[in-house]
Amino acid sequence: MNMVDELHDSGGLSDIAFAALAEYFDRTQMIELFALAGWYHAISYMANGMGTELEDWAPRFPEPRS
Question: What is the domain range of residue 19?
Fold first, then answer.
């Protein structure tokens, strides 16, 4: 599982995930990663909640596999 999935699913990180991130990023970089994930989540909530229409030119994510 990756950082974003774990944050989304649980609102936090396991000790294992935190330690894995710490192997590659310092504390300041990790704070930036958490803030980036949080802002993306907040903006998504706002755009979806307000019913913002998708741009015609923007690429789409593939449909999830069942």
Answer: 3-49
* CA pair distance 18, 64, nearest whole angstrom: 27
DSSP assignments along 14-51, one per residue = -HHHHHHHHTT--HHHHHHHHHHHHHHHHHHHHHHHTT
In a domain, 55, yes or no: no
What six digits make up the tokens of 41? 């989540």
Structure tokens at 7: 């944050």
What total number of domains does the chain contain? Answer: 1
**pTM, full prediction:** 0.71
Confidence of residue 2 (pLDDT cuts 50, 70, 90): confident
Q: Which residues make Cβ contacts (< 8 Å) with residue 33, sequence separation at least 6?
A: 3, 21, 25
